[in-house]
Amino acid sequence: MLGWFGFAVLAMSLYAIQNFLSKGAMEKKCNSATVMSIFFATAGLLAAGAMLVTGEAWANSWTVFLALAVINGSCFLMGSIARLEALKYLPLIMVYPMKKMDVAIIAVVGLLFFGEALSLAQGIGVVLAIAVIWVLAMDKKAEKPKDFRKGIVLVGIAILFFTVTDVVLKPAASEGSIYMFIVVAYGLMLLPSLLLQKRLGKDRSASLETTLKWGVAIGVVNFFAITALLTSLMDGPLSIVFPITALAVPLAGALSVVFYKEKLTVNRIVGVLLAVAVLVLMSM
Fold this sequence. Notes:
Layout: H1 3-27, H2 32-54, H3 62-86, H4 92-99, H5 102-113, H6 120-137, H7 145-175, H8 178-188, H9 190-195, H10 208-235, H11 238-245, H12 248-260, H13 266-282
Helix pairs in contact: 1-10, 1-11, 1-12, 2-8, 2-10, 3-7, 3-8, 4-12, 4-13, 5-6, 5-7, 5-11, 6-13, 7-10, 11-13
C-alpha cells in the first residue's frame, strides 16, 4: 500500500498532467464548457465502471453525502471554467501558482474546523502565499492591461470556488464510496456545463473531434487523480495533503515553458519559486 502520503504524491503527479492538458485544450481554442462536459462524462463513466466492478455503493448518510456531492460538483465546475477562461488571458505559469494559493486558506480551515494543527512553517507559508499573489499580480509587462485585469479576476473567482471544492472532499472521503461520490458529483454537473457551451464558445474555433480528444484525455487523468486524492484524504490531514498535491503547479509550469514556449519574466520566476517555498513549508 502507498499510504496516504504516497497517494497524495500520486495525485500531485496526475494533477500536473491534467493542468498541462487543460492549457493544451485552450491553446487549441476548445470551448471550455464543452471540455468540461466531456471531462465530467469521461471521469463519471470510469467511476461508474469501477463502482460496478468493486461493488462499492454506500453512504453513512445519503442526505449529507448528496449535499457534499452537489457542493463539490457545482463549485468544481465554476472554478474549472473560471480557470480555463483565465488561461485565455494569462499564461499557465501565472494562472496555476496564483490559483493554488488556496492551500493557505485550506490550512486555516483545517485548523479551525477539523482540529488540525498549523505549524510555524505553515504559518510562514500563509504569509508567503500572499507574497506569491502580489508578485505575480505585478507582472503586467507581458500582458495587455485589459486582458491582464480579466485574467486576474477570473483567477480570484477560481480560488474561491476551488477552496470550497477542496474543503468538502475531506468529509466526503469518509462519508461514502469514493467512486459513487465521483459519479454523483460529476453527473450532477453535466447539464449545467452543457448549457454553458454557447456562452463560453465565443472565439473558440476547435472542431468537436479535437475538443472530444482533449476532454477525454483530461477526464481519464482526472479520474485517477481524484481517486488518489480521496484515498489520501481518508487518513491524511487536509492541511498537508493539499499542499503536497499543489506541487503539481511548478511541474505543470515547467512543462508549459518547454512545450508552449511561455515567457519567463523575473516576476514569474520569483513567483513560482515562492510558490514552491509555500508548498514545501505547508507540507512540514
